[in-house]
Q: What sequence folds into this?
């Protein structure tokens, strides 16, 4: 059942975005370890805005150079160079996930990043980034050690203002309900 739930949002997003996908300038499939490099680069190149929606994000003090720590640091650096950064994290589903997400939320908030937690009455299982209202990355990868280094994961990068706009509307709806 977990696998079906994990894949459903990807297919739902793709079905809802089919008309917009027709106008996409570039679509790239990202698998496994490719994800970190693609996202790391995209965040570093962001000029105006970054929106992140994640089910689970882990920050590991004992491993300062872990991939998720680097992505969190990338968000902080983006904010410091003037990029608007907003992050939605899951809360209320699993104590382990809640603890990780609250910790990351505190780190990001201390560094001027807007953080919201979803409603405790709904699970936000999405893994979504929207960069500069143009680049969207959606798929299965959480920002945790195993997702970024061990698991089989798949995401899609879509270079399309229209797709980013539709996903941005979804992001805003979840943001407002948090």
A:
């Amino acid at each position: 059942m977990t696998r079906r739930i994990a894949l459903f949002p990807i297919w739902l997003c793709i079905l809802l975005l089919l008309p917009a996908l027709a106008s996409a300038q570039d679509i790239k499939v990202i698998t496994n370890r490719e994800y970190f490099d693609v996202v790391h680069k995209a965040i570093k190149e962001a000029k105006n805005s970054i929106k992140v929606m994640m089910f689970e994000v882990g920050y590991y003090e004992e491993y300062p150079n872990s991939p998720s720590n680097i992505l969190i640091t990338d968000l902080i650096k983006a904010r410091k160079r003037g990029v608007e950064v907003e992050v939605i994290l899951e809360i209320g589903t699993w104590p382990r996930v809640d603890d990780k997400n609250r910790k990351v939320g505190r780190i990001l908030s201390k560094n001027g990043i807007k953080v919201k937690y979803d409603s405790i009455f709904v699970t936000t299982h999405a893994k979504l980034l929207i960069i500069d209202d143009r680049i969207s990355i959606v798929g299965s990868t959480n920002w945790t050690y195993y997702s970024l280094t061990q698991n089989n994961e798949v995401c899609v990068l879509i270079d399309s203002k229209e797709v980013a706009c539709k996903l941005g509307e979804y992001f805003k709806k979840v943001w407002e309900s948090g």
Summary: The beta strands are 26-31, 49-54, 84-89, 114-117, 128-131, 135-139, 154-159. Residues 2-177 form a domain with the Endonuclease; Chain A fold (CATH 3.30.870.10). Residues 38 and 162 are 21 Å apart (CA to CA).
